[in-house]
C-alpha cells in the first residue's frame, strides 16, 4: 500500500537513502586508521619533495610526475590540502576525501534522475548499491580512494556537462566539462578516456564549433600526459594476448565483479561474475544500438547519450584492467579494488531498464530493485566484515614492522612530520615484548611451505568485536629481531554465513570463533630461531602470552618490483 501523504513519503525515502550512507560512514570511522599502505608511502615521499622544493617549476614538475602509468596530480593536491589542514599527512582524512567522491556520484545520479522525471524513490537502489562494503580495499586506502573513485566522478561530471551543454545559450556547462576532463586526465591513467569519449559525443551531436575548442584542449591534455612518458618498468604488468579466451573471461569477470558469492560459494565466484558480465554486456549492446541508430526525442536521446558515455568509460576501464592485470592471475581481477566499475555498471543498467519502461510499470520495478539492493548491501557487510577487520589489523602490524622490526620509522625532518605513528594497542606492551619470561604450553599448528608459515591456534570460543582491533596477533621474537603478524578469524561453523546471521553477531558484537590463522611469508623476516607469542585483543584489553613453541626461519630474498617513482 502506497503512502498518500507526500511529506511522510519523502521523509521515509530520505531515511532509506541515508541508511546505507550512515552504515558506510560508521564502518569507515571504526576501521580506518592513519597508517600508510604501499603507494601511500610514494604519496608521502612526493609531498616531502614538494614541500622542500626550492622553485615553483620544480613543484609543478613533482605534481605532474608519473606514478607507474598514472599521473596522480589530484591525489598529490589532496595530500597537500590534508597537510595544510592537519600539519601532517593524515591518511584517514585523505581516505575521507576520496570516499566523498561516492557522494558526488550519487548526487550526479540524483540530478540525472530529476532530468528524467524520476522520483526520489528511484535513487534508493543506487544508494544501497553504491555504498556497499565490497569496495573496502579502496575505501580504506588513502591513495587508491582518491585515484580510483575520483577519476570516475570527474569522468561522469565531464560527460554530464558536455552532453547537456547541447543547445545551451551559455557555455558554462561546456567549459566546466573541459575543466573536469583536465582534472580527470591527471587523476588516473583511465582518465585519458574522457577527452576521447567527449570527442565522440560532440561528433555524434554534430557540434563542430565546440568540437574545435574541445579538440585543442584535449590535444593539450594528452600531450602533457604523454610528455616524457615512461612505460611501466614492471614486466609483470605487460599485456599478454596469447590466450584470447582467457582475456575474454577476464573482461567478463571484471564487468560482473559486483556479484560476489565467494563468501558462500567460492568455487562459483568466477563463473557467476562472468555470467553477470555477459548479461551486462547484452544490456550495453542493446542500449548502444538504441542510442546510436534509433531516431527519437532529442532530449531523451541526450539523456541516454550521457549514460552511454559513462558505460563506455567504465567498459573500456574494465578491459584495461583485464589486459594490464591478467598476468597476475584471473583471481586478481575479482578483488575489491576493481569492483567500483562493476557496481556503477549495475547502477546505470538499472537506470536504463527503468527509463525503458512504461510509467505504470516503474513503481513496481523500483520496489523490487529496492528490496534486492537492500539484500545486496546487507550481504556485502556480512561477506566483507572479516576482510575489513583484518585489513585494519594488517595495517597495525605493517606499522609495527616499520617502527620496531625494521626500525625505519622517520624520527626527524619532514618525513617524521608527515608520517607520525598511529597510537595502537601494542604501545603499552612494548616492555613485555622485549623479553620472554614465563611460557605457556600450547598446541599451535605450524605448517611450513616454500615461502612462509601458517600458524593455527584452534579455539572454540566467542570473540567480542566491539573494539576495531579485536582478534589475535602472532609475535615472533629471536635474540635480535621482533615481528608482529595479524591473524584471520575463522568462524566455528563450516558454513560461515551461519555465524554471521545470528543475534550474537548482529546485535551483541559476539562472533563465534573456531580458530585464528596467521599466514606470513619469509620475505620480510630475518633468519633465526623465533619464540612464538600471541596477543589477544578484546574489549580494548590486550593480553600477551609467550608459548613454549618456536620456529626456525631461513630468510628468503624477494625481488622488489621495478618502479618509476
TrEMBL record:
**Alphabetically ordered keywords of this record:** Membrane, Transmembrane, Transmembrane helix
Tell me the protein's name.
Glycosyltransferase RgtA/B/C/D-like domain-containing protein
Transmembrane intervals: 7-28, 91-110, 117-136, 148-166, 173-205, 211-227, 247-266, 272-293, 305-328, 340-358, 365-382
Amino acid at each position: 500500500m502506497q503512502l498518500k501523504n507526500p511529506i511522510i513519503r519523502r521523509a521515509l525515502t530520505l531515511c532509506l537513502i541515508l541508511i546505507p550512507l550512515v552504515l558506510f560512514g560508521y564502518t569507515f570511522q571504526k576501521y580506518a586508521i592513519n597508517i600508510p599502505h604501499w603507494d601511500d608511502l610514494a604519496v608521502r615521499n612526493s609531498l616531502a619533495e614538494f614541500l622542500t622544493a626550492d622553485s615553483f617549476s620544480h613543484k609543478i614538475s613533482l605534481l605532474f610526475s608519473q606514478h607507474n602509468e598514472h599521473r596522480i596530480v589530484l591525489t598529490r593536491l589532496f595530500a597537500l590540502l590534508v597537510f595544510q589542514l592537519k600539519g601532517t599527512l593524515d591518511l584517514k582524512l585523505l581516505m575521507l576525501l576520496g570516499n566523498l567522491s561516492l557522494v558526488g556520484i550519487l548526487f550526479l545520479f540524483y540530478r540525472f534522475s530529476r532530468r528524467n522525471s524520476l522520483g526520489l524513490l528511484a535513487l534508493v537502489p543506487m544508494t544501497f548499491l553504491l555504498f556497499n562494503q565490497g569496495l573496502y580495499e579502496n575505501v580504506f586506502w588513502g591513495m587508491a580512494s582518491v585515484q580510483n573513485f575520483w577519476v570516475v566522478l570527474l569522468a561522469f561530471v565531464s560527460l554530464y556537462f558536455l552532453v547537456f551543454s547541447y543547445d545551451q545559450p551559455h557555455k558554462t556547462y561546456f567549459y566546466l566539462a573541459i575543466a573536469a576532463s583536465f582534472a580527470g586526465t591527471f587523476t588516473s591513467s583511465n582518465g585519458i578516456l574522457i577527452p576521447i569519449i567527449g570527442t565522440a559525443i560532440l561528433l555524434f551531436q554534430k557540434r563542430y564549433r565546440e568540437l574545435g575548442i574541445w579538440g585543442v584542449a584535449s590535444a593539450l591534455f594528452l600531450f602533457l600526459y604523454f610528455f616524457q612518458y615512461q612505460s611501466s618498468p614492471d614486466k609483470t604488468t605487460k599485456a599478454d594476448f596469447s590466450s584470447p579466451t582467457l582475456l575474454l573471461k577476464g573482461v567478463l569477470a571484471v564487468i560482473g565483479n559486483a556479484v560476489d558469492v565467494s563468501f558462500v560459494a567460492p568455487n562459483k565466484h568466477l563463473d557467476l561474475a562472468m555470467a553477470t558480465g555477459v548479461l551486462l554486456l547484452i544490456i550495453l549492446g542493446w542500449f548502444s544500438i538504441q542510442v546510436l541508430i534509433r531516431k527519437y526525442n532529442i532530449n531523451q536521446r541526450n539523456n541516454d547519450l550521457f549514460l552511454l558515455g559513462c558505460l563506455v568509460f567504465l567498459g573500456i576501464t574494465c578491459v584495461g584492467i583485464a589486459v594490464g592485470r591478467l598476468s597476475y592471475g584471473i583471481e586478481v581481477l575479482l578483488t575489491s579494488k576493481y569492483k567500483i566499475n562493476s557496481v556503477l555498471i549495475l547502477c546505470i543498467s538499472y537506470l536504463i531498464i527503468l527509463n525503458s519502461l512504461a510509467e505504470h510499470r516503474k513503481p513496481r520495478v523500483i520496489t523490487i530493485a529496492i528490496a534486492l539492493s537492500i539484500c545486496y548491501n546487507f550481504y556485502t557487510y556480512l561477506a566483507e566484515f572479516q576482510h575489513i577487520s583484518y585489513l585494519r589489523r594488517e595495517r597495525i602490524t605493517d606499522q609495527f614492522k616499520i617502527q620496531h622490526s625494521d626500525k625505519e620509522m622517520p624520527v626527524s625532518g619532514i618525513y617524521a612530520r608527515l608520517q607520525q605513528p598511529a597510537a595502537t594497542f601494542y604501545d603499552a606492551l612494548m616492555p613485555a615484548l622485549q623479553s620472554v619470561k614465563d611460557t605457556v604450553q600450547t598446541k599451535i599448528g605450524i605448517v611450513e611451505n616454500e615461502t612462509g608459515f601458517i600458524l593455527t591456534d584452534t579455539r572454540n570460543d566467542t570473540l567480542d568485536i566491539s573494539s576495531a582491533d579485536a582478534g589475535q596477533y602472532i609475535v615472533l621474537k629471536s635474540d635480535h629481531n621482533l615481528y608482529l603478524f595479524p591473524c584471520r578469524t575463522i568462524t566455528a561453523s563450516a558454513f560461515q554465513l551461519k555465524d554471521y546471521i545470528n543475534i550474537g553477531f548482529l546485535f551483541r558484537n559476539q562472533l563465534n570463533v573456531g580458530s585464528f590463522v596467521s599466514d606470513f611469508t619469509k620475505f620480510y623476516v630475518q633468519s633465526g630461531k623465533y619464540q612464538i607469542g600471541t596477543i589477544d585483543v578484546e574489549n580494548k584489553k590486550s593480553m600477551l602470552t609467550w608459548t613454549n613453541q618456536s620456529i626456525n626461519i631461513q630468510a628468503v630474498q624477494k625481488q622488489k618490483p621495478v618502479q618509476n617513482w
